[in-house]
Design goal:
With 462 residues, this protein is an alpha+beta fold. It contains 15 helices and 18 strands. Helix 1 runs antiparallel to helix 3 and helix 8 runs antiparallel to helix 10. The structure holds (2R)-2-hydroxypentanedioic acid and zinc ion.
Length: 462
Amino acid sequence: MTPIDTMQRQLEEIFTPARVKTAPEDLAAWGGDWTRAFRVAPSAIVFPQSIDDVVQLTQLANARGLHLVPSGGRTGLSGGAVASDGEIVVSFDRMNRVLDFNAADRIVRCEAGVVTQTLQEYAAARDLFYPVDFASSGSSQIGGNISTNAGGIKVIRYGLTRDWVAGLTVVTGAGDVLECNNGLVKNATGYDLRHLFIGAEGTLGFILQADLRLLPAPAPARVMVLAIDRFADVLNVLQSFQRGLTLSAFEFFSELALTKVLDHRDVARPFAKPANFYALVEFDADDEEAALGAFETIVREGWVGDGVVSRSDAQAQSLWALREDITESIAPHTPYKNDIAVRVSDVPAFLDDIDRLVGTHYPDFEVCWFGHIGDGNLHLNILKPEDLSADAFYERCHRISPALFEAIRNRRGSISAEHGVGLLKRDFLHYSRSPREIALMRQLKAVFDPKGVMNPGKLLTP
Ligand code: 2HG
Ligand code: ZN
C-alpha cells in the first residue's frame, strides 16, 4: 500500500468512505475559495459530523504529520481556506445544525457549518436579529465568519462577528476540546481564549460550535443613495447624518463600480447624471425626518448633487444591489483585491495617497473603489485588462503592493480590514504587525498547534 492509500484508509475509518472524497472534481470544488489566485491541490476532503470526528482526525494528523485546512462556505477572498499542497480539507458542510436556542439569554448555539443567512432567518422567525451581514451571507458559514472575524455592511452600528460570539467549542491543533466562555456575559477568569480563536483563520484549531447572541428585531429601515462628486466631501456627509441620527450603514462606491454592476445586472442607474462617487446610507424609518434634514444640509452645502430614498423594501433592496453586487460584477475582470483600513478621519487623505500611487504605477489599469467608508474599510480592486495574462497581471500588482502597504503603514492602517491574511497577505503581515507581535503570534501557534498541523502557510510564513 502506498502512503496515500494508507492515509485514505485511515480517514475512511474515522469518517466512513461516504464522507471522504478524493475525486479530482471534488478536490477542485472543496480545495479552493473565492480568491481563485492560488494552486488548488488537496489530497482529500473529509466531512466531520461530530466533535469526536474532528478530535480523531486531529490526533491522526499529529501522529502522521498530516496538514488540515478548515473549510466553510469558501467565500473567503484571501486564500485562507485554500489547500495548495496535499492538505486534507475539513469541510463543515455536514455540521450545519442549529443546536439550541434560549429565549431568555437570546443565545443560539450553532454548529460551524450553519450558513449565515440560515442563522439570520432563524433569528427573524423568532422576532430577533443576527446583525452581521454581507453579500456572501447566502453561502458563508458561521465557522468561517468567526475564523475571519467577518465584518460586512452593518459594522458601523453593530460591530464585527467577534461582538456576537458568547461562547465557542474548539478543537485545538493538539486535539484538545476547549469550551470557551459558555455563553456567559460576565466571566472574569483570566485569558479569554475564545477571542484568540476568533480571527485566527484556522491556524490554532477548529471552531466546532458557537453561542451567538441575538438582538431584538430592528426597526424597518430606509436606504438613501447620494451622488457625490468630490471624495473630500464624503466625511462631511457622514458627519451630517451622524449628528442627527444613528446610521446602520454608510457605504460608498465609485462610478466605475456602478457601471460594472449596471453591465452585469438588471438594475437601474440611480440618477440620470453620473457622479464620481455614490454613498449608500441606511437608517431606521423612524429617523426619516432627521435624515431628510441632513439631506437638505448636504445639498445646500454643495456636497451632494442628488439623492434617492427607498419607499418600499423592494426599492431598498434594489438600491442595496448597486453596492452588494459589485464583487460579483467585477469577478469576470479577475480583480486584484485589496481590503484595507485606516481611521475614518484619514480616509480622504489616504484615498488621495493611493490614487496618486495607482496613477503612477497602473496608468493602464481600471481601479475600482468601494467599501464600508463608515468604518474606514476600503476595497480597492484593480481590474485585469483583457489582453494581459492573469499571471502577468497578478505579478505586476504584487510588485506594487509594498508601496501601497507602505502608504497604509504611514497612516497606521491595516493591510487587511476584514478579509483576513490567508495566503494572499501573509508575506506582507509585517506592514501591519511589529516583528515582536509576529514572534508572539508564532509562539501562540506553537502552544495550540505544536506539530503545525493546522492550516500551514496561512497568516504566518512557514
Ligand atoms: C464587500 O464589501 C466584500 O462587498 C467584498 O467585502 C469586497 O470584493 C471585494 O473586494
Ligand atoms: Zn467588505
